[in-house]
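> example.struct
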């Protein structure tokens, strides 16, 4: 956190994406996705979010104060390393009039650490398609992969509890759930998209050799389905069993395998040069 004193008032400002609150995240992504703001106005709006103050108050600062304070929003503009799960549950409104009801949908945990590989295959494909086309059907389908109703029975204290509140992933239910999650407010949708991309960036840094194999040459589409097929029948079991394995487990093993293959190639090349 950054600590700032302005006119005798003390402020604590987030210094990283993971220090944002859920409310701040939703406001930040709204600002970042508003095309009408020029760079200066965007930075002032972001400062308003971090300070939790009105624009009129920030505009009362001197030019020097504004320049100094807007430096504190730079982390929001230079990179996205959001991995904390700030929206673990979202609520969708259903029914009409006196019959209004709310349905809860639960998302993965921080770092996507309870995301299965089958979920990742679908979510990543939808995410990349959305970024390439801006067609919101792909965004809504990505949300439908990640966010699902609570499993039944839900017994978190049971010895057999697997650590996931969500019902098991079923690709055949994506389309129907996407229609329901399409009614979420845009700031929630963009916050979840931003979080997913932050987690994905973290994965790319952790497992760089793996992501070279899982993406197309232009980086706009996903080839994880092929990776899933290649892995099936090997150390993680059948295609269904591999799909149910945690994504981070599979990526870690693939990174280890690729690093070993690189070392063996280097050793073979060194031996060849000596001969």
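> example.seq
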């Amino acid at each position: 956190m950054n600590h700032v004193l302005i006119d005798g008032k003390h402020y604590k400002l987030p210094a990283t994406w993971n220090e944002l609150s859920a409310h701040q995240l939703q406001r930040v992504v709204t600002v970042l996705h508003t095309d009408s703001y020029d760079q200066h106005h965007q930075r002032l709006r972001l400062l308003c979010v971090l300070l939790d103050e009105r624009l009129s108050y920030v505009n009362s600062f001197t030019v020097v104060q504004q320049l100094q304070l807007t430096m504190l929003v730079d982390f929001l503009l230079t990179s996205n390393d959001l991995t904390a799960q700030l929206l673990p549950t979202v609520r969708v409104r259903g029914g009409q009039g006196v019959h209004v009801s709310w349905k809860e949908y639960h998302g993965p945990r921080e770092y996507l650490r309870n995301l299965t590989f089958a979920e990742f295959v679908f979510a990543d494909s939808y995410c990349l398609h959305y970024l390439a086309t801006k067609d919101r059907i792909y965004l809504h389908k990505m949300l439908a992969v990640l966010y699902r109703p609570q499993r039944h029975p839900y017994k978190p204290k049971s010895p057999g509890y697997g650590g996931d509140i969500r019902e098991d992933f079923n690709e055949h239910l994506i389309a129907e759930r996407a229609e329901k999650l399409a009614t979420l407010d845009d700031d929630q949708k963009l916050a979840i998209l931003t979080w997913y991309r932050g987690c994905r960036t973290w994965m790319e840094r952790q497992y760089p050799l793996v992501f070279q194999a899982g993406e197309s040459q232009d980086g706009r589409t996903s080839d994880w389905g092929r990776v899933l097929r290649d892995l099936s029948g090997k150390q993680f079991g059948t295609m269904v069993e591999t799909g149910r394995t945690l994504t981070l487990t599979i990526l870690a093993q693939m990174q280890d395998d690729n690093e070993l293959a690189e070392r063996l190639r280097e050793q073979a090349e060194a031996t060849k040069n000596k001969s």
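> remarks
The radius of gyration is 22 Å.
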